[in-house]
């Protein structure tokens, strides 16, 4: 069994310079410590372009699983420790080469302990020779598929090979705050993940229409928020009681325009909620063409009621791609639970696919929606969700 000693973390997307770079690294360091806070005895070291964590007996499988959730990490590698003995080094390097992905390699040795009987060049050649004799791999010093790095110290030698891909992106929370319209569907939790990956802190607004929508449906949304909150520490969810406004819409607009009006009301409420909580933009899980309300004409008509930018991270993604991400981030199973959302309950038979702004406005002129919007805002409950329900602190 490999004796892992240290994990070496490489940063992603570091085209940022100066103060931005410092903020990036400081935030990343904080986010990593937060996600590993239940792991005792870890020791951290930060250099210009790397973070090292000495494991001191911590379980590498747990560390690996956690680090893959942290945005801002481009890749990381575990380092194995063996006694400073050339036979041990050869044996371990060979095993790493056999396990590595790819067929071309390069060995890079640094000898800190000058009393070691071979110099770096001789170690490189000996280790490479061992790999060449026992595998089909070839040496490529310019563009190898993988590198075996060897650091010889007085008693122990450290070997690193496999690069484990990180989640990429920017450390959660360094790029400001957005308010996401979060339903219980497949798309919006994926949108939350994509926004967080860009370093945005995500708050959510959910529209519930009790008693037409159930407690289960509401809990499902909170559970989804809890699942994605692991990437930013916690997630606030503003649950809006939408019942009265929604009933009034159906009474006033009738079938074809009901969805359009409902969305326009959702956007208005979202924008006010965003402003109140310091969010600079709103966001949705919409994707062009997916359903009637997501045609370009429909987006234009819905977007017309707000002034803030509306971020739609999934706008050009295929459903299959969205489902793949949902499965990967662990929201898919919850999203497909069959509890009805406010949209599905009042699902009209013939929604208009090319709504006009004039027509929407003429329906809206028939009732005092502003008063109902104010009521919705007053009837909003804010709940903070954490990845683990016993959680108390968050890192943002
Ligand atoms: P999702 O899978 O995210 O539910 P969808 O494919 O079902 O999306 P729609 O029902 O048209 O598509 O919803 C489009 C977007 O509108 C959602 O991604 C979400 O951002 C927002 N939305 C829909 N219903 C609600 C709701 N009840 N509360 C908050 N936001 C909602
Ligand atoms: Mg939906």
The CATH superfamily name of the largest domain is HUPs
The CATH class assignment of the largest domain is: Alpha Beta
Question: What ligands are attached or bound here?
Answer: adenosine-5'-triphosphate, magnesium ion
Main β sheet profile: 9 strands, mixed
Radius of gyration: 27 Å
Gap between N and C termini: 38 Å
| Oligomeric grouping of the chains | single chain
Task: State the low-pLDDT regions, or none.
Answer: 390-396
* CATH fold description of the largest domain: Rossmann fold
Sheet/helix structural class:
alpha/beta
**H/E series:** EHEEHEHEHEEEEEHEHEHEHEHHHHHE
Number of helices: 13
Estimate the global geometry from the Cα principal axes: elongated
């Amino acid at each position: 069994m490999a004796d892992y000693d240290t994990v070496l973390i490489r940063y992603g997307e570091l085209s940022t310079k100066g103060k931005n770079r410092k903020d990036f690294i400081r935030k990343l360091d904080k986010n990593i410590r937060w996600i590993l806070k239940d792991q005792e005895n870890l020791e951290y070291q930060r250099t210009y372009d790397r973070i090292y964590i000495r494991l001191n007996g911590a379980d590498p499988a747990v560390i690996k699983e956690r680090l893959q959730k942290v945005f801002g990490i481009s890749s990381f590698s575990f380092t194995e420790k063996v006694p400073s003995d050339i036979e041990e080094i050869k044996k371990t390097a060979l095993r790493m080469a056999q396990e590595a992905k790819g067929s071309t390699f390069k060995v890079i040795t640094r000898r800190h302990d000058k009393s070691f009987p071979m110099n770096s060049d001789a170690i490189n050649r000996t280790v490479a020779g061992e790999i060449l004799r026992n595998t089909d791999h070839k040496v490529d010093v310019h563009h190898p598929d993988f590198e075996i790095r060897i650091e010889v110290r007085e008693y122990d030698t450290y070997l690193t090979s496999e690069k484990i891909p990180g989640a990429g992106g920017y450390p959660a929370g360094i790029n400001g705050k957005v308010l996401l319209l979060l339903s219980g569907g497949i798309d919006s939790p994926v949108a939350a993940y994509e926004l967080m990956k860009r370093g945005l802190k995500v708050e959510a607004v959910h529209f519930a229409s009790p008693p037409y929508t159930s407690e289960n449906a509401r809990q499902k949304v909170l559970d989804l928020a809890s699942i994605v909150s692991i990437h930013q520490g916690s997630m606030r969810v503003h649950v809006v009681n939408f019942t009265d406004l929604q009933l009034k819409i159906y009474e006033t607009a009738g079938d074809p325009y009901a969805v359009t009006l409902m969305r326009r009301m959702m956007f208005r409420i979202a924008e006010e909620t965003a402003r109140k909580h310091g969010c600079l933009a709103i966001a949705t899980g919409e994707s062009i063409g997916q359903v009637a309300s997501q045609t370009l004409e429909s987006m234009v008509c819905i977007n017309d009621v707000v002034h803030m930018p509306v971020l739609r991270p999934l706008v050009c993604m295929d459903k299959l791609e969205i489902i793949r991400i949902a499965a990967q981030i662990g929201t898919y199973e919850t999203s497909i639970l069959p509890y009805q959302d406010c949209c599905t309950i009042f699902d009209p038979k013939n929604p208009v696919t090319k709504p006009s702004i004039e027509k929407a406005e003429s329906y809206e002129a028939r009732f005092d929606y502003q008063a109902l919007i104010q009521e919705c805002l007053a009837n909003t409950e804010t709940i903070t969700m954490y990845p683990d329900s016993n959680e108390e602190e968050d890192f943002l």
